[in-house]
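ok trying again, last paste got cut off:
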Amino acid sequence: MTETVTAPLTGKALLQKVKELSHLPRREKARRCGYYTVGKNNQTRVNLADFLRLY
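nice, full thing came through this time. structure:
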């Protein structure tokens, strides 16, 4: 997958994207909306807490 997200989505953009991704699990929605970090060994960590707080 090749996705480039500069900053996590917020507000109306976040709500619209979540609606578009309604068929996906919460963790995948959060990742696709930009709520993740890439750590050691290129491992992706989803920041589900921040995503759920704003959603």
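cool. The radius of gyration is 11 Å. The chain is about 45% helix and 10% strand.
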